[in-house]
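Record type: monomer structure entry
Structure origin: computed from sequence
Chain ID: A
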Amino acid sequence: MMANNPLEYGVIRTTRELGNLVRAHRKKHQLTLETISGLGNLSTRFLSEFERGKETAELGKVLKALRTLGLEVIIQPRRMSPSRLPSPRDEKNNA
């Protein structure tokens, strides 16, 4: 059961991981889908699908749901080993 697992925030790589984290955060704060739906003007169906990891969830709605829950997205470069870092030549080719 979720109560035995501590809530861990951090790196998210899949929609399922994001949905699981959001669900755990919501439940930790004893919020229902209906409450978040009303506060964020989002449908409970959307919220349920988002928490189940729906890959085609609309980004604007995802961000709105996160804001409603008091969460934020932080973008940063992925940690890579020095041998996997892009070279300046690669960056010119992608420009």
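Annotation 1: Residues 2-75 form a domain with the 434 Repressor (Amino-terminal Domain) fold (CATH 1.10.260.40).
Annotation 2: The chain has a mean pLDDT of 87.
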